[in-house]
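Dear Dr. V.,

Thank you for agreeing to look over these. As mentioned in my earlier message, I'm a first-year student in the group and I'm still getting used to reading structure tokens, so any feedback on how I've presented them would be very welcome. I ran two proteins. I've put each sequence directly above its structure. The first is here:
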Amino acid sequence: MHSAVLAVAVGILVIVAYEDVRARRIPNALSLATAALGLARVAFAAEVIDAGYTLAAAIIIFSITFTLFQRGAIGGGDAKILPATALLIGYRELLGFLFLMSLCGGVLALATLAAEKLDLSCRRFRRGAYASSNGQSDRGRVASKGSAVPYGVAVATAGVITLIAAR
């Protein structure tokens, strides 16, 4: 991959990770920029068959992530950035990317759960003896259902590593 395209791709993916951690949202503009960069890369591919396989893989991944989004399993930003990143990476590196993304996502999920657990423990300690402000016990409570893993970080991390390694 050309160095300028690689630098732009890494820059976009770093911003994706930052925005997902900061706001728990991935702006559409970042997904579109990633997809556009991927389409440009596909358009200038030497092999037409490679381009077709990459487009087919991205469409399949989009179908899967869209279904997962509709069922509430993943966020909308994740459903868009994953196929866009797959388009950027290309089908030849896709399985390695997905495997690495799964590993990064697992570590991220564990870190998020640990941070929530630590935060809950710190709140208990500050309030003293597990008593909440209304006098009820916090013991046995789980993290709020509204908390989410910023999975765009896993997608971006795996994308950057895969792009650099495939260079």
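The second protein is here, in the same arrangement:
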Amino acid sequence: MNRTAGTEVRAVTFDVGGTLIEPWPSVGGVYAEVAGRLGAGALDADGLDARFRAAWRTAHQGDGFDYSRRAWMDLVRATFSGLTGRAADPDLFGALWHRFTEPDAWRVFPDVVPCLEVLAARGLRIAVVSNWDERLRPLLGRLGLADRFEFVVASAEIGAHKPSLEIFVHAADRLGLPSSALMHVGDSCREDLDGARSAGWQALLVDRRGASGPDRIAVLTELPGRLLMTSISGTSLG
């Protein structure tokens, strides 16, 4: 945990996937539903989840995944490869691309709204900094979350994705605040924790497996208390 004496958090930004929302009932569940509707037969959702995770890890080696439509198309093809002859079918990809714009393909974690309400009541500025594409802002609107944020930064729209310095500098410029007064919260050590810290921000990891510690919380409802403690002590988490 890094501490910056006398620095109070004045704005908090959030990652989205795994932090505020998750695919519902799962990525594999949605993939199986859409593929089945298009005639691919009954596919195992758990198996698709495992294949998606493997394809995701491969795609994220280095900085190869840019969250563009083409990158997502390649990821879908890799996930379905060998399972169905429609793996490269543009109709399958198009249907999946659209399905994930619909609110019932996602679940908002139950700790999200209570956390955001407390932060807003305290006068903190709140925004989103997420690796996502142009579907993010409309999706947050359909989920009833968009109005809770001052602005939304989606990586594909600015051509830089976490953990790059550029995306955090972009958000800091929009907030007009020094980096030491900003906190980012997300679920990825590399993209969120390390990325924010490299830009001079404070940061916390949300670990929904239940782990807690100096630089992480198990649920977002722990966040307001962490911020209050650092304000009282005159130091800041980061």
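From my reading of the second output: The chain has two domains: 11-20+109-233, 24-104. The two ends are 6 Å apart (CA to CA). Does that match how you would interpret it?

Kind regards,
E.
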